[in-house]
Amino acid sequence: KQRVLSGIQPSGKLTIGNYIGAMINFEALQHEHDCFYMIVDLHAVTVPQEPAALREQSESVAALFVAAGLDPAKAAIFLQSHVPAHAELGWLITTLSYMGELERMTQFKDKSAGKDAVGAGLFVYPALMAADILLYKTNLVPVGDDQKQHLELTRDLAGRFNHRFGETLVIPEPFIPKVGARIMSLDDASKKMSKSSPNAGSYIAMLDSPDEIRKKISRAKTDLGREIVYDPKEKPEISNLMNIFAQVTGKSLQDIQKAYEGQGYGTFKKDLGEAVVAALEPIQQKYKDIRASGEVHAILRDGAERANTAAEQTLREVKQAMGFLPPV
Ligand code: AQP
User: Fold this and answer.
1) Which residues constitute the domain of residue 252?
2) How far is the CA of 327 from the centre of ligand 1 (A)?
């Protein structure tokens, strides 16, 4: 059994990008591996969050995890802030990181671009993310393609730690889906779909109503021409929609292309809208039931207990290796 860890920020409404790029894999991996899935609230506050909204989103993401098929009996589902070792190892790993390597992170560049005041938390985010992963001696990290660079840095930092202080940490491997690894924004296929986008029309939230979903897809930007062909370079917009179609229906891109040969964008978008609605409706129903039942709290309590046990052990080993005097 491999140890698996991943997380999602409660920084907005989860999108089908999060679902396709991350949660579908989370679900698949839990059957064979020892999985830890967390709601990374400490990461969410690297940009300002309104306290009431943070509380609500954290609970909402936990319920969505379960609604999307994560089984608390199999995987530990927990909040990052319920496991103090994250903040502590985060600091220790920060001290191992170089400014230069953090400055190279494209997510930092994107999120800080054009801003006068850039939070230091946003800058050291990758060190905390590395700590998250290393705390659980994680073997596999299921993430979307956008997180590849952070994972590479995590591997470097773990190697640096082991080199300096002796073999302590496990070097993790990314687990990135081949198709659908990156779902792009509906209004601009050069940007990834993101839950914190100010334009709600640029993403489909997992909890959008069927009508909102249909409307957003019908308004999604499309390339010139009218052919449904998968060609991410020449037709990035339609290729992104085809990608979403393939992911939610399980159909291949080739089959989709064949099915819509000679038909315009209109029919395709209409069918895509229905396919996304059909994929999300059962999740939304289950979500409502879970929220109403209040069971999320017990799930998070149990998940945090399991996570704390694993995390405290690694933190003890790390501190010992670094030369911190153990408490007497
Ligand atoms: N567009 C995407 N396509 C594929 N995968 C995606 N992920 C996010 N967006 C896409 C994957 O979802 C997981 C959780 O991401 P996160 O919440 O930690 O933060 P993020 O990657 O920064 O996602 P967002 O939606 O863009 O959040 P904000 O806007 O708050 O920064 C990761 O596995 C990620 O790969």
Assistant:
1) 210-288
2) 39
Answer for the pair 240, 272: CB distance below 8 angstroms, yes or no.
no
pTM score, whole prediction:
0.93
Residue 109 among known ligand-binding residues? no
**Whether residues 283 and 318 fall in one domain:** no
User: What values do phi and psi take at 173, rounded to 5?
Assistant: -110, 140
Give the total number of structural domains in the chain. Answer: 2
Any residues with Cβ below 6 Å from ligand 1, and which? 6, 8-9, 11-12, 15, 17-18, 20-22, 143-144, 146-147, 182-183, 192-196
- Residue 284: burial class (beta carbons within 10 Å; 0-12, 13-18, 19+): middle
Over residues 157-169, the pLDDT tens digits come to: 999 999 999 999 9
- Where does residue 106 rank: exposed (0-12), middle (13-18), buried (19+ CB within 10 A)? exposed
Q: State the residue for tokens 């990135």.
A: 176
Task: Choose, from 13, 137, 195, 235, the residue flagged as catalytic.
Answer: 195
Question: What is the token pair recorded at 214?
Answer: 């249909």
Residue 176 DSSP SS3: coil
Asked if 2 contacts 41 with a C-beta cutoff of 8 angstroms, the reply is: no
Strands 76-79 and 173-175: unpaired
User: Domain with 269 in it: what CATH number?
Assistant: 1.10.240.10
Q: Which residues pair with 39 in a beta bridge?
A: 8, 79
ipTM for the complex shown? 0.95
In a domain, 201, yes or no: no
- Domain membership of residue 189 (yes or no) is no
